[in-house]
Specification:
Layout lengths: L3 E6 L3 E7 L5 E3 L9 E2 L2 E3 L5 E3 H8 L6 E2 L13 H8 L6 E4 L5 E5 L2 E3 L1 H11 L14 E6 L5 H13 L3 E7 H12 L6 E8 L4 E8 L4 E9 L4 H20 L9 H18 L5 E10 L5 E9 H25 L9 E5 L6 H11 L13 H11 L11 E6 L6 E3 L18 E2 L9 E5 L2 E2 L2 E2 L6 E4 L11 H12 L3 H11 L2 H13 L3 H14 L4 H20 L3 H14 L4 H16 L4 H17 L4 H17 L9 H15 L2 H15 L5 H34 L3 H28 L12 H6 L3 H14 L4 H10 L2 H9 L3 H13 L5 H17 L5 H13 L5 H20 L3 H12 L6 H25 L4 H19 L4 H34 L3 H21 L4 H16 L4
Parallel strand pairs: 1-11, 11-12, 13-18
Antiparallel strand pairs: 1-2, 2-3, 2-4, 5-6, 5-7, 8-9, 9-10, 13-14, 14-15, 16-17, 19-20, 19-21, 22-25, 23-24
Helix pairs in contact: 3-4, 5-10, 6-7, 6-8, 8-9, 11-12, 11-13, 12-13, 13-14, 14-15, 15-16, 16-17, 18-19, 19-20, 20-23, 22-23, 23-25, 23-26, 23-27, 25-26, 27-28, 27-29, 28-29, 29-30, 29-31, 31-32, 31-33, 32-33, 33-34, 34-35, 35-36, 36-37
């Protein structure tokens, strides 16, 4: 199966299709062997979501937890007229409320979900779920969207696809999808003007399409969002409600179980509507219909076609208005329509067919596509026209993945919509692996000698008439798009100079970029920006390309060219800080690019002497940072990392420079023209906060370039260690600067004149002055956090904290364990080591027992509190056990949990899970035993009882879950011994009748013993008690006591 599919998410039924190896669309059948699936989601309150027919069967008994017509609530406010119609007609038995933004929120099973989240559950259920077919799971989709959907509804539909884990390549109008399916199979030797008449469950849409073998244009469309198959159903429901009230004097809408009744009537009405498409009358039979309380009726009603026509006539007449409106918008007449493309499940209604024939005559009779499946087929065709691998990755930061079950969730949701686990702020964002193409308005197909090429499918072409030059025809845009698609970029470039379409310029720019022709791509995007200066996508694309080209020049040490390109990028967006930072670096490196290593080595001592006399000079720190940086990169002794000290000096001077007010005064002067105003203190603070992490990232990237391979060969994380040192140097300097600012505002003297970091503190013996300065601030405000952070940075544990923040767990643990061995056993060290062990546990994704036990043993050796570690370990173990259980590997899950309990034996969640797995193993063992050896069931029951009692000793005593299952097994054992006793009594009776008294007494004794065991197993069973009394009575009569 293709990895890309077309999806038709209907209001009541949905379908999914893919393109076969023969290049034709095929419907994917569900597990029931049907091409469509009911668009229903049911939540059972225990964490399980059911869809399709399973949801319907469960929902008829519990309608408050059955969600349907979800598509009609997508992207709508609670007060939206479309949604209001549903609520006021009691068509939504489940609870709906409005969220803080006024949008619809759905409450089922005491949990809240947005409509896109509900729809995502349904889309997820369409995935193949058997082990054999997992390789066929689809990852990309074109989803059909109603023509009447606005921007908010389309965004919500797109979001639902992302929540379901799909890369939504495109939202394609349902009318275009239907026409695509028609275009593939129709004889289009002559162009046609077609009317797509789409009567779905939720709405009616009519679209006039211009169709030929090489083009497909939507000329005009109209919709009625309250006129669909459901509207016809509810006319029947209203009639049934009237009949019940007439026959039984009960208004079902006022009953406590009205939701259940109305839902039952709704699905009965839909079935009756379909049957009346073929028959003149139909019987609606609902046995045992509960009319509140204990009143049950067997409801029967015959609905004939004439009555049905009278109920829906007004609705059918409204459909004519929609058709006429679409034709009017297309500037056509009824006579201009060549063919009717019929779409939807309600087209078999005879009155609808009569209305269409009255308007269009025999144009209605010929139907070459499947009316209920063609939308999915057309969407599938569209997937074959888009190659996901051609488009760059576009993550969706608004959606994150649950770490426990892997379900995608809205980032602002507190708990996972499926498993309920807490979603941390660090959750992985959704990454679909592709982007959507622009909206498709024109299509072309391969031609050969005037005939369709066998198996060929139309190719998409983007068009944006709003941005085109006056007088430009759709044909010219089509030709330009075709040239781009076929790779004739130079010809497309020439044509676009005349066409002037911004979207096509952007498409051409992307084509150049994909070929690595970045300069041409940047120029082309520039043309798009000229046409649409406020087109954010075009501007960002041009800036990105200029940035990439500048980097290429910088790598060749072509500083002037790199600087020119970056200045162009800055003109496009003066506030783009990353571009500005690179421009700064290029200008600095340009100034010193001619210095060789000897000049650097001779210049550094001179600058160091100046700094030794006055280390507060920002200009000297700036030059030294550059010199040390260049020397570190130019150092050839890479493998042994002998230049580590050079790197640290570079870090120290960068930190001194970036936290020196004199540097920022000069920076503000140089940037005054670009920002066109003096920066406020707040704005400057924001820029500085952005600059420091950008600097860390930049320096780290340069180190990776120079030393990454050596680190990899040596198996070390030296580059991360340097990054941690740089981060500590910069952050400590920043905190010290805040302390100095605080003392200055308080008019108190400071022991140190300018901010710098720990490396400088050591180099210039400033630690006493730094400590005194921080304590002076704390004397004024004991809660002043920057001062406390400065004191923390003086401690030996400061670097350890920096290592932890960079994920250097092994390095941090080694340093902490050394602190312990040297007798530094204070609270801070203990907390850090406990945190390090906890983070190390999180990295053991496969939970190897030996490694985990080693960590716990060390933690306990140092007397650490392991409670939090046990919780983290248990969570990971439970995930692994769940995975094994889901695959049916219960013995593996059992071993995982038993091993874990040897480490975290106090964890109740592990105990509960082992109890659950044990119960499942016992149930499966007994069921399998019954199949293999029906006459020896007691053996498996006894074995199951032993298994439960053995586990209960391990995790109990008297674990509730285990005891409940043990009681059930004992009841089954008791039944077995009771049945055995019955057979023995029968054997005794036969023996007595045959004169074998001793044999009879032996049988009765065995029966008595069996019943005593049964009574012990189930003392509350009165029948067994009575049987025992009876057998003991027989034995007494025989003189046996």
């Amino acid at each position: 199966m293709s990895k890309a599919v077309g999806i038709d998410l209907g209001t009541s039924k949905s379908a999914i299709a893919y393109i076969t190896g023969k290049n034709t669309p095929a419907i994917i059948e569900n597990l029931d062997g049907e091409g469509w699936t009911p668009s229903l989601v049911y939540y059972d309150g225990s964490g399980e979501f059911h869809t399709g027919k399973a949801a319907l069967n469960l929902g008829l008994k519990d309608p408050k937890n059955l969600v349907y017509a979800t598509k009609n609530s997508l992207g709508r406010d609670y007060t939206d007229p479309v949604f209001k119609v549903l609520r006021e007609h009691q068509r939504l038995p489940f609870n709906c409320e409005k969220d803080h933004n006024g949008e619809v929120i759905i409450c089922i099973g005491k949990r809240y979900f947005s409509p896109p989240e509900i729809l995502a559950f349904f889309i997820e259920s369409l995935q193949p779920n058997s082990e054999v077919s997992k390789q066929d799971r689809f990852t990309h989709a074109v989803i059909a969207s109603p023509a009447y959907f606005g921007q908010r509804q389309r965004e919500a539909l797109h979001q639902a696809g992302h929540l379901a884990g799909l890369n939504v390549l495109q939202l394609l109008n349902e009318s275009i999808a239907s026409a695509l399916a028609y275009q593939v199979d129709a004889d289009l030797s002559n162009p046609q003007t077609a009317l797509v008449f789409d009567l779905g469950a939720g709405a009616l849409s009519a679209s006039v399409m211009g169709i030929s073998a090489s083009e497909l244009n939507e000329l005009g469309t109209s919709s009625d969002m309250n006129l669909g198959g459901d509207a016809f159903d509810y006319r029947i429901v209203d009639e049934l409600v009237r009949v019940i009230q007439e026959q039984h004097q009960v208004d079902v809408r006022t009953l406590p179980n009205s939701e259940e009744i109305l839902l039952t009537l709704k699905f009965q009405a839909e079935s009756a509507k379909i049957r009346l498409g073929k028959s003149l009358r139909t019987q609606i039979v609902i046995p045992g219909l509960a009319l509140g309380g204990k009143q049950l009726i067997d409801f029967e009603y015959e609905l004939n076609r004439e009555t049905f026509n009278n109920l829906i006539r007004e609705l059918v007449q409204r459909s004519t208005e929609v058709i006429n409106d679409a034709i009017h918008k297309a500037q056509k007449t009824l006579d201009d329509i060549d063919t009717i493309i019929l779409v939807g499940r309600s087209l078999n209604i005879p009155l609808v067919q009569e209305e269409l024939r009255g308007l269009f005559g025999n144009k209605v009779s010929r139907q070459i596509i499947h009316p209920t499946l063609c939308v999915a087929q057309g969407a599938a065709i569209q997937t074959s026209l888009i190659k996901p691998a051609e488009y760059e990755n576009q993550p969706d930061p608004s959606i994150v993945r649950c770490e426990k079950c892997g379900t995608y969730n809205l980032k602002n949701r507190a708990d996972c919509r499926r498993c309920g686990a807490i979603i941390p702020p660090t959750a992985v964002i959704f990454n679909p692996g592709g982007i959507a193409l622009p909206t498709i308005e024109v299509l072309e197909t391969g031609k050969q000698g005037g005939k369709r090429v066998e198996g060929n499918i139309p190719t998409p072409v983007s068009s944006s008439p709003a941005s085109a030059l006056p007088g430009v025809t759709a044909f010219q845009r089509l030709k330009a798009a075709a040239l781009i698609k076929t790779g004739s970029l130079e010809q497309a470039h020439k044509l676009l100079s005349q066409v002037g379409d911004a979207v096509l310029w952007m498409w051409l720019g992307k084509a150049y970029a994909d070929k690595g022709q970045l300069s041409q791509a940047a120029q082309v995007y520039g043309e798009a920006v000229k046409l649409e200066p406020h087109n954010k996508d075009a501007v960002e694309a041009q800036i990105s390309l200029l940035h990439k080209i500048a980097i290429q020049h910088a790598q060749k040490k072509e500083w002037r060219l790199a600087g020119e390109l970056l200045r162009q990028a800055v003109e496009l967006d003066p506030k783009n800080q990353s571009v500005r930072n690179l421009l700064d670096a290029v200008e600095i490196l340009g100034l010193t690019s001619d210095l060789d290593i000897k000049q650097l080595e001779s210049g550094i001592p001179v600058l160091e002497k100046i700094q030794a006399k006055d280390f507060t000079r920002a200009d000297v720190a700036h030059q030294l940072a550059i010199f040390y940086h260049r020397k570190a990169i130019a150092d050839e002794d890479i493998a042994n990392h002998k230049n580590g000290e050079i790197w640290e000096k570079a870090f120290a001077n960068w930190a001194l420079m970036l936290n020196n007010p004199a540097y920022w005064q000069r920076w503000m002067q140089s940037r005054h023209k670009a920002y066109e105003h003096d920066l406020t203190d707040t704005e400057l603070k924001v820029i500085r906060q952005q600059t420091i992490p950008d600097m860390i990232k930049k320096l780290h990237g340069q180190y990776i370039t120079a030393y990454g391979k050596a680190d990899q060969i040596a198996g070390v994380n030296r580059h991360k260690q340097y990054q941690a040192r740089l981060s500590l140097e910069l952050s400590a300097a920043r905190n010290l600067e805040e302390v100095l600012s605080f003392l200055s505002k308080s008019k108190r003297p400071a022991k140190i004149p300018v901010a710098c970091g720990p490396i400088m503190w050591q180099q210039f013996q400033l630690i006493p002055a730094v400590e005194a300065t921080a304590r002076a601030a704390l004397a004024l405000d004991a809660a002043f956090e920057p001062a406390q952070k400065v004191l923390d940075a003086i401690k030996s544990t400061a670097l350890i904290r920096a290592y932890l923040s960079e994920g250097l767990l092994d390095e941090a643990i080694a340093m902490l364990e050394k602190e312990f061995s040297e007798g530094h056993d204070d609270q801070s060290t203990r907390e850090l080591l406990q945190k390090a062990y906890l983070e190390k546990l999180k990295t053991l994704t496969n939970m190897p027992l030996k490694e985990a036990k080693k960590i716990f043993d060390k933690a306990r050796k140092y007397g650490l509190n392991t409670s939090e570690m046990e919780v983290e370990y248990a969570q990971q173990v439970l995930v692994k056990a769940d995975q094994a259980q889901t695959k049916g590997k219960l013995e593996e899950a059992d071993k995982i949990l038993r091993d874990a309990l040897t480490i975290a034996g106090r964890n109740q969640n592990l105990k509960d899970k082992l109890a659950s797995v044990t119960n499942r193993r016992v149930v499966e063992m007994v069921e399998e035993g019954r199949k293999k050896d029906p006459n020896n069931e007691i053996y498996y029951l006894d074995k199951g009882s032993e298994m439960i009692q053995e586990v209960d000793k391990l995790i109990g005593p008297n674990h509730p879950t285990l005891m409940e299952n043990l009681a059930a097994i004992k009841r089954l054992q008791a039944v077995h011994y009771n049945e055995k006793a019955k057979k023995l009594v029968e054997s005794a009776a036969s023996a007595f009748q045959s004169g074998f008294r001793s044999n009879g007494i032996s049988y009765l004794k065995q029966a008595r013993d069996a019943l005593r065991i049964a009574v012990k197993l189930n003392p509350s069973d009165n029948t067994i008690q009575e049987n025992l009394v009876f057998v003991e009575g027989l034995l007494r009569q025989a003189g046996i006591y």
